[in-house]
């Protein structure tokens, strides 16, 4: 399975098997995280086999087998939420290619209790991962024409990019984004309150994979 196939295969899974991650899977994930952190100047961390809820995560998470997760961290800069959204979904989809399932938990944890350990960093949520009890089901999506506009005859790459974007996980599954295109230029806007930056990064990543980065440029 490659990343594009993972976009269609990945669905939110909220219950995980009580099974540790295989050593080769952890090694592969760590290598991917190191690469992403270096390229995008973020500090995403992988926590495995954690028996205590992360930084005040609600106790019911533990009943769902949440023991492995990504902590989305990065330096305090203007575009950090978008960067963490972009990088987080890259790792989540890569995890899918390794046979894992994921749940983008978002901000349902105590940022205040975490801040003492990561001073100077932005904490943008966690992504639970592991071997799911189920594979999940597709989320309900908006209609294609409700999330995009293209000036002129719409090329196939743009269509495929939008289709991939519609499969992106967004906060509360609101899909409050709009993709516009003209010639080979594309822009995306998001209006989902405090999660707009994160959603923008996630949707951009999905669009790039679906459309092919060589077919367009961001405006």
From TrEMBL:
<protein>
    <submittedName>
        <fullName>Nitroreductase</fullName>
    </submittedName>
</protein>
<dbReference type="Pfam" id="PF14512">
    <property type="entry name" value="TM1586_NiRdase"/>
</dbReference>
<dbReference type="InterPro" id="IPR000415">
    <property type="entry name" value="Nitroreductase-like"/>
</dbReference>
<dbReference type="InterPro" id="IPR029478">
    <property type="entry name" value="TM1586_NiRdase"/>
</dbReference>
<feature type="domain" description="Putative nitroreductase TM1586">
    <location>
        <begin position="2"/>
        <end position="211"/>
    </location>
</feature>
């Amino acid at each position: 399975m490659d990343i594009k196939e993972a976009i269609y295969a990945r669905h939110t899974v909220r219950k995980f098997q009580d099974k540790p991650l295989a050593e080769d899977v952890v090694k592969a994930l760590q290598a991917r995280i190191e690469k992403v952190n270096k390229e995008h100047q973020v500090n995403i961390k992988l926590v495995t086999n954690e028996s205590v809820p992360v930084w005040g995560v609600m106790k019911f998470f533990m009943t769902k087998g949440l023991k492995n997760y990504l902590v989305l961290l990065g330096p305090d800069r203007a575009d950090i939420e978008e960067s963490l959204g972009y990088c987080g979904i890259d790792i989540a989809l890569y995890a899918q290619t390794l046979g894992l399932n994921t749940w983008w938990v978002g901000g349902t944890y105590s940022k205040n209790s975490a801040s003492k350990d990561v001073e100077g960093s932005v904490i943008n949520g966690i992504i639970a991962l592991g071997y799911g009890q189920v594979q999940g089901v597709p989320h309900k999506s908006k209609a294609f024409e409700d999330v995009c506009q293209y000036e002129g005859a719409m090329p196939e790459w743009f269509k495929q990019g939008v289709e991939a974007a519609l499969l992106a996980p967004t906060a509360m599954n609101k899909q409050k984004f709009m993709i516009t295109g003209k010639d080979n230029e594309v822009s995306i806007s998001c209006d989902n309150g405090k999660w707009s930056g994160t959603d923008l990064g996630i949707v951009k990543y999905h669009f790039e994979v679906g459309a092919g980065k060589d077919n367009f440029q961001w405006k």
